[in-house]
Amino acid sequence: MGVVNEEAETYKNKGNEAFKAENFEEAISLYSKAISLSDKDSRDAATYLKNRAAAYLKIKDYDKAIKDCDDALAIVPEDPKALFRRAQALETLERFEEAYRDAKTIFTVDPTNKAVQPVLARLHAIVQERARQSAQTGNKVEQMFKLAFKLEEDQDKREKAMANLLVLAKENNGADIMLKNGVVHKIQQLLKVEKNTDIYCNAVRIISQLCKRNVNRTKEILKVVGIPWILEILDSDIEERVNTAQYCLQVILNTFSGMDTSQKDSKPDPKLCEQYKSELDTLLTCLTYSITNRVISGKARDAIMELIMRNCHYSAINWAERFVEIKGLQRLLEVCSELEEYKYESAMNITPSSSTVAAACLAKIYENMYYDEAKQIFNNHVDEFIKDKLLTPDLESKVRVTVAITSLLRGPLDVGNYVISKEGIMEMILVMAQTEDPLQQRVACECLIAAASKKDKARAIIDKGVDILKKLYQCKDDAVRVRALVGLCKLGSFGGDDASIRPFAEGSTKKLAEACRKFLINPSKDKDLRKWAAEGLSYLTLDADVKEKLVEDKPALQSLIELAKTGDQSCLYGVVTTLVNLCNAYEKQEMLPEMLELAKFAKHHIPEQHELDDPDFVNKRLTVLAKAGVTSGLVALSKTESHNSRELIARVFNAICSIQELRGIVVQQGGAKVLIPMALEGTTNGKKQAAQALARIGITINPEVAFPGQRNLEVVRPLIALLHPECTALENFEALMALCNLAGMNETTRNRILKEGGLLKIEQYLYEDHLMLQRAATQCICNLVQSEEVIKIFEGNNDRTKFLYLLCQEEDMDTVMAASGALCVLTSASKVCCKKLLDVEPWVETLRCLLANPNKEIQYRGTYILYNIVKDDKDMAARVFETDVMEILMALTKLDDPEQKKAKDLAQKCLNAAEELGVIRKPDQSTVVDPFKETDKHSDEEEVA
Questions:
Q1: Largest Cα–Cα distance in the chain?
Q2: Which stretches are tagged as biased composition: Basic and acidic residues (predicted)?
């Protein structure tokens, strides 16, 4: 055993050496080996544990430091070093009362210990203050309880009291006191009888706040109320209540998984997910089973599906495969197959958006089936659902299956195509379309429309189904007619915006558009018919003639925008796609001239652009849309969880923001507010489109108006994301301009740009061989150097300051203006930066360019930089005045132009500073030479002589 102890001691000594060399990770590894080799309850083991705790403190792993100190104190109770290190860790974690207890114990054991005395005094003051605040908070909580939970009290007082409790719940101290005083049980009882929505929602928000980022409190709360209670409060027809309860559930999921949805790019903590796997599984399983709960409201059902959607992705809780395993797909397909026409006691409550949300959820789950086997399992579950439905060959089963297939075609398209290509399915749908039953006709039409998403499918349906759709369009039932109309519209538009492809006869598209218009503007038609009419237009508006006609049709345009303002997710596709088409904001494939020639030579089909899709016509349409209030509609629709739909919305916003005069309208109607989240999360193209729209707003409108409050910080990251090689030069330029304006706002915004890595990305464009990009980057740097942090970076061991100085020789006046402005700030704040300028090889030439510049402002900036260099530094002043700079300064002091007075005064100050330093003496006025004055050869020779 003695040999082992010697080996342990060797590892300890090596650990001490590593600790002194500040290699803390290595020290921890060596101390761990010493601990494993030592006797478990020996004093040596206690020493090794204390040492490792010291190393853990250095790397800020305070929980492990506390654990090691606990173990050391179990061996040697009241050991001063172990107590002191534990007190340090506890204080950092703001567990002040426990830290104070340890400090008092050290003082009791060793009263002469000087290191603990200031710590004890500091902790005593903190603990006393916290005790005082705790007493105050306790009194506040007690007072608020008396008001908030008594139904007979005045309503205004109760509302204020509940709002105050919510504020108190955000503080740890207040949260602990409220929990001890039974706030959870009180809220649970109150919500059974509370009618006031504000009080009800704030009570639920208190539960959310108590759970936020605190696992112990969350477990305690769930022990009191249980998961069924939270699902119960979710069951409401009042949207605010549903949203509040949904948020509460998301907070609980975040707490157990370590996610923080307030932080973008936040990911779950794998250790926490593993530790609380059982709790997470229980929560998500309860949500899954609740999808088909027959008694909950439609809004609650939508909220549950949205929660599943948010948490199934690998970057969240990665629950997709487990969801499929517990037959969650069948439950979603049950929701998809639900129809208002089949109203039984057992029917589910659904909203107009339910099938859309379910389809989006199916798509999200499928997106997370990363390997072929998982995709096959997904398909097997879908097959199982369809087989179960078709076992009973009644009419209702066929209708429900068809509606479910339609949702699959609108969600995971690959799965929908897989199902519809199975033997007998398409035939069944075509047979249903040819019956005399309006319900069968309607659902068959919807399925045919969804199936014609790919050109090969569209061609097949044109061959088989056009005559059926034409016949259905003659039907007396409006619901069937409008769907048949949309089917014809979709099939008639499969050539896209290629003016040379027209599947139907000339003029058919305009007739179809007119038919859609009649449904859209008719006030007697219900919203469902108008929604389908909008979808029909979404296909027809690929035709430029239809675009022009629609944009001139004020009633139709207004109906479209009013439909958008409802925020109904089922209207989303039709409305937004129509708007994308009107704005020409869809993805356009660029055709290289050489490829075009090659295609002509090979006699391949070449798409033709319609003359009405020229930029002038597009800009006119954008102006009409913006002035008609389209932004308000887009804001309402932006609540969607679908990333593809958000991309379409961002495209329309970006197209409108491409016209400078329209950007103010976008900001006034709340566009900037919804663009920020769209620029941070979604598809790659969607984020880019939203970010470019924000950049355009940031260029034209004062950032304090466009992005008030916290928004000016949130907009920084999407703008910096546009400074990427894969983005176009225009996107780079607009991002730089917007960042330049933001950098001029305040120090907080400048620090955020730095924190997001903005400085390095902006500087890349200083070296670009592109005049506009170089100029914009220099202007951005000019505003950033107002930050003390940036000045420190420029003072570092780098050539940043020197490069700015070299930019002063550029031909572009705006670039020189910005570079010299930045140098004015740097040289006035830092002598280090001043010295760097004189290390540039052509420093004299650059200085001459500034001092003799025809631009008066640049000339002034040059004299300002020179004054900063020469003042208070004899060596640098001597180097400067060894050159012909003195003659240039003398000439500047003789300037008569009032606009050059600032430069003249600074030139004199430079000469005075040099004279005070003893670098120059006051010259004889008669011998001064004006370098700007031309002299003849004879006088030159006299001067030389």
A1: 119
A2: 931-945
Residue 518: per-residue pLDDT: 82
Average pLDDT over every residue of 882-890: 88
Say whether pLDDT at 46 is over 60.
Answer: yes
CA distance 245 to 208: 9
**End-to-end CA distance of the chain, in Å?**
98
Instruction: Tell me how far apart the alpha carbons of residues 87 and 344 are, in angstroms, rounded to a whole number.
Output: 66
775 burial level (CB within 10 Å; 0-12, 13-18, 19+) = buried
Burial 70-89 (b: 16+ CB within 10 A, else e): ebbbebbeebbbbbbbbbbb
Cα 7 to Cα 223: distance, rounded to the nearest angstrom = 49
pLDDT per residue over 214-265, tens digit each? 999 999 999 999 989 989 999 999 999 999 999 999 999 999 998 876 665 6
Contact 592, 524 (CB under 8 A): no
- Domain 2-113 in CATH: superfamily? Tetratricopeptide repeat domain (1.25.40.10)
Radius of gyration over alpha carbons of the chain, in Å? 36
Nearest to 917 by CA among 881, 865, 874, 876: 874
Residue 254: count other Cβ atoms within 10 Å of its Cβ: 22
Q: Give the residue among 299, 306, 308, 361 at the shortest CA–CA distance from 333.
A: 361
Question: Helices 455-473 and 425-433 sit at what angle, rounded to 10 degrees?
Answer: 20
CB neighbours of 800 closer than 8 A, spacing ≥ 6? Answer: 763, 793, 794
Tens digits of per-residue pLDDT, 760-786? Answer: 999 999 988 889 999 999 999 999 999
Distances (CA, A) of 598 to 66, 497, 588, 606: 72, 22, 19, 11
pTM of the full structure: 0.63
Helices (H), 196-319: 197-211, 215-225, 227-234, 239-257, 270-275, 277-290, 298-311
Torsion of CA 886, 891, 892, 896, to 10 degrees: 160
For residue 611, give the DSSP letter: G
Dihedrals φ, ψ of 691, to 5°?
A: -65, -40
Please say whether the beta carbons of 374 and 321 come within 8 A: yes
Could you say which of 1.10.760.10, 3.30.1130.10, 1.25.10.10, 3.30.565.10 is the CATH number of the domain covering 785-945?
1.25.10.10
Residue type, position 852, single letter: A
DSSP character string of 507-568? THHHHHHHHHHHHHH-TTS-HHHHHHHHHHHHHHTTSHHHHHHHHT-HHHHHHHHHHHHT--
At 727, list the tokens: 């983005």
Q: Are 851 and 892 in contact (CB under 8 A)?
A: yes
Taking alpha carbons only, the member of 651, 584, 576, 648 closest to residue 618 is 584
Locate the domains of the chain by residue range: 2-113, 785-945
Of 201, 182, 200, nearest to 192 by C-alpha is: 200
